[in-house]
Amino acid sequence: MTKIPNQNIIEIFNFRYACKKFNPNKKVTKKDQETILEAGRLSPSSFGIEPWDFVVVQTKKAKAELSETVPITNKTKIKTASFVVIILNKTKNSLDVNSNYIEKLFSKFKKLNFVVKRGLKFVYGKFIISSLKTEEKINAWSQKQTHIPLANMLTTSAMLEIDSIPMEGFYQQKVLDFLKQNNYDISNKEVSVLAAFGYSAEKRPKEKLRRDFEDVVTFL
Fold first, then answer.
1. Which domain holds residue 167?
2. What is the C-alpha to C-alpha distance for residues 128 and 91, in angstroms, rounded to an integer?
3. Number of domains forming the structure of the chain
4. CATH of the domain at 159
5. What is the per-residue pLDDT across 164-193, written as a single tens digit (0 to 9) for each?
6. Which of 55, 112, 113, 137 has a CA positioned 20 to 30 A from the CA of residue 202?
7. Residue 34 resides in a domain
8. Global pTM?
9. CA-to-CA distance for 202 and 162, rounded, in angstroms?
C-alpha cells in the first residue's frame, strides 16, 4: 500500500460536500460504484457483527419510486443521483446471541479455536443482555454503527472525485414498503440512512464551513 500524503487527505475532505443536485446524465462507473460499496462492506463494527445491509437503487424507475418516500427537499437529490444506497440496520431479533444471523456469523470466525469462539460469543451475549437490555437500546446501538460504513462510503466517493450526500430525511415505513414491493426481505431490519452518489450539477462551495480546530480538539 502506498501512503497518501497528508495534504492530499485533507484535500479529499475539503472536496466532499453535501451535493443538493446531481447531473442525471453523468453516471458513476460500475468499478467506482463497487469500490464505494466495498469500502462500506469492509468497515469495522462492534464485535465484528456487521449489523447492516445495503440496498442499491439505480434504475430511473426505482429512483422515482424511492423519491416518493422522502420529503420534498430530498426528492431531486434522489431522482438526479447516479445511484442511492439505502443503509439498513439489523434489529433485536437478528442480534440476539442465539439468532440464526449471529450463529452463522460466528461460524465464519474459522481462525479462532472453539474455546475462544465460545468465549467471544459469551461476552457478546452478556453485553446484549446486561448492557443494552432493551429492544430499543439494541436497535439504537445497531443503528449508530451504520454511520461507520456511511462515512467510509462518503470519503471513498470523494477520493474518486464523486459527489455525495447523506440523508436522514425519509419516511421509515414508506421506505420499508418500497423495499417490500421490490421483493426485498425487510424482516428484522430498520432503515437507518440514505446516501446519494453522482456528479454535481451545481456550483461547488468555495470553502467548507467548520468550527476551528482549536474549538473542536482538546489535548490532555
1. 18-171+200-206
2. 12
3. 1
4. 3.40.109.10
5. 999 999 999 999 999 999 999 999 999 999
6. 55
7. yes
8. 0.95
9. 13
